[in-house]
Amino acid sequence: MNSVVYSLKYLRKVVWNYYNNIELVRNIPGISLDSDEEALELVKDYWIFLQYNNVKMDGNRVINAVDNIMNPQLLDEGCTIPFDIRKMTGDENFQSVRQILSEIENNEDVFDGVNLIAATSMISHGVDADRFNMMMFFGMPNNTAEYIQAYSRAGRKYPGIIIDIIRPTREKDMSYLKYFVKFHEYKDILVEPVPVNRWASKAVEKTLSGILSAILMNHYDLKYQFEYRNLYDMKVFKKLIEAELINREDIIEQVKKAYGCQTEDGGNNPSYNYIQFIEDSINKVFTNIVDKSFTDQYYYLGYTGLPMLDSRLSIPMNSLRYTDKNVNIELR
Predict the structure, then answer these.
(1) Both ends of the chain: CA-CA distance in Å?
(2) 275 class by beta-carbon count within 10 Å (0-12 exposed, 13-18 middle, 19+ buried)
(3) Are the C-beta atoms of 165 and 137 separated by less than 8 Å?
(4) 167-194: per-residue pLDDT in tens?
(5) Which of 42, 63, 211, 254, CA to CA, is 20 to 30 A from 5?
(6) How many DSSP H helices and E strands does the chain contain?
């Protein structure tokens, strides 16, 4: 723990020194800058630190140590801008993460705002910011794919600096340290195979409603919204079906193409086995929507939509992290 928090402290002092003595930036060998303003812009790109933890508990310990020990030390040593920390872990919802990213990207004065993100593996997908260029790992992630995904958050627009803090008590970390150069040389071919079968039989049940919703929103809604209102409303969906403006056979073919059930030369893809379920489910949706009546509260994107017409379907996923409804487990 001491290694990571003191590394953060000393790294902050280095960047603070460049910020406080901007002429030092212009004197860095190999850097050609015409003005102090350009040098200050360069410091901005490395002002925010991204700190990665394997587990949330480590992140909480880092935050506590920085708040209670490192920040007072930084202030005592003349660094008047200590760490302003935010968390990005599984405890934060998607809206909170978006708010933090917006705060980082839209803050005109980078030096007055968040400057340290304590994160876990949740940042590995969809967390992109041009100002993430300084990153520190507290221990190596559990697999190569996660390591590559995580460090890819840094240096997306400008050169990134990645620092690995090896945990000597972990045998796996010591192995990474021993073969550090070779590991990074061959890391791409060391990515472990994914244990999940992308063509699992249950996959179509979880994703069909999203595929169907995307077709309705991005094709039919654009085509008919001005004449019939937005297609999010189940009543409008039913009206278009009854007017034969949405044809079930066309929908079935569009969905099968989305899943790539057949190749261009007429052969079959692994998703070919989805065809029967796709046809059965869409036929069931079309039959049930004609037989039911709907009020304005019914939308096909929610639980009162497509899953009500075919109970095998899930609600459309709105995030790659969506799996199922949360279940609270209490120990008494």
Answers:
(1) 32
(2) middle
(3) yes
(4) 888 888 899 899 999 999 988 888 877 6
(5) 42
(6) 15, 5
- Residue 67 to residue 331: CA distance in whole angstroms: 31
At 276 the three-state DSSP class reads helix
Is there a contact between 242 and 313 (Cβ–Cβ < 8 Å)? Answer: no
Task: Give the pLDDT confidence score for residue 3 in this predicted structure.
Answer: 87
At 97, list the tokens: 């993460």
Contacts of 64 (CB under 8 A, 6+ apart): none
Q: List the one residue out of 157, 162, 184 whose CA is nearest residue 50.
A: 162
pTM, rounded to two decimals = 0.60
2-190: which CATH topology? Rossmann fold (3.40.50)
* Sequence ranges of the domains in the chain: 2-190, 203-309
With b for 16 or more beta-carbon neighbours within 10 A and e for fewer, the 87-99 pattern comes to bbbeebeeeebee
> What are the structure tokens assigned to 67, written together?
């708040």
